[in-house]
Amino acid sequence: MSRLFEELDYRPTPIGALVLRRRHEARLGVDILEIKLGEEHLMSDLFTASEIALADLGLAACDGEALDVVVGGLGLGYTAKAALDKTQTGSLLVVEYLEAVIEWHRSGLLPLGPELTGDPRCRLLHGDFFALARSADGFDPDAPGRKFDAILLDIDHSPDALLDARSESFYQPKGLGAMAAHLKSGGVFGLWSDDREDPAFTERLAGVFADAWAEPVTFHNPLQDKPFTQTVYLARKG
Q1: Against a cut of 0.90, is the pTM above it?
Q2: In sequence order, what DSSP letters do the residues of the chain get, joined into one string?
Q3: CB atoms inside a 10 Å sphere around CB 167
Q4: Which residues in the chain are classed under CATH 3.40.50.150?
Q5: Res 7 pLDDT > 90
Q6: Which CATH superfamily is domain 47-236 in?
């Protein structure tokens, strides 16, 4: 029988205590992996549909092959894995602020770690996505000024529900414009949100990009036994 609760790792970080834990959900008869930051639930492997949809929808909106992709936020690895599952992905750079999360994947503590670290297309970079987004050099320290076909972001809960103050200016026109400078012509920005669409944010994207739209991602929540809807925002550079 599974343990009811097991703390797999604990790390203090500049933005709060980071915890990786496994717990048994008796109502469903399954073990669940969870990442918490302070009192915030960052991710659970019980709900992964929208994290996967971020890569599926974002890369489906891109043209061409051998795409160069950035993922902001590694988490349990589902967005990165979905991006690598696409044959059109030529390279993947995953930017993660919390170094422990990268270590969990590299050590194999997280189930998707071996697949991510074993794929030669994938690099895990310890860095601040938001600082890199507003910098002139961009996301790849080995190739300053490099541009990408897609930038996919899953860090904050939504454009209005932030984990910490680092990203406060990112979701405004100036911050979005600075990030868009690191996209190739026709490149796509994708953003995960834990909430339903905020039309005001879609309109804000449309003021920066040539096209902007929101895709609802609805899945069954087994804990509440009802559908739950999250959102993937998408925008294409002119």
Answers
A1: yes
A2: ---SEEEEEEEEETTEEEEEEEEEETTTTEEEEEEEETTEEEEETT--HHHHHHHHHHHHT--SSSEEEEEE--TTSHHHHHHHTSTTEEEEEEEES-HHHHHHHHTT-STTHHHHHT-TTEEEEES-HHHHHHSSS-S-TTSTT--EEEEEE--SSBTTB-SSGGGTTTTSHHHHHHHHTTEEEEEEEEEEESSS--HHHHHHHHTTSSEEEEEEEEEEETTTTEEEEEEEEEEE--
A3: 20
A4: 47-236
A5: yes
A6: Vaccinia Virus protein VP39 (3.40.50.150)
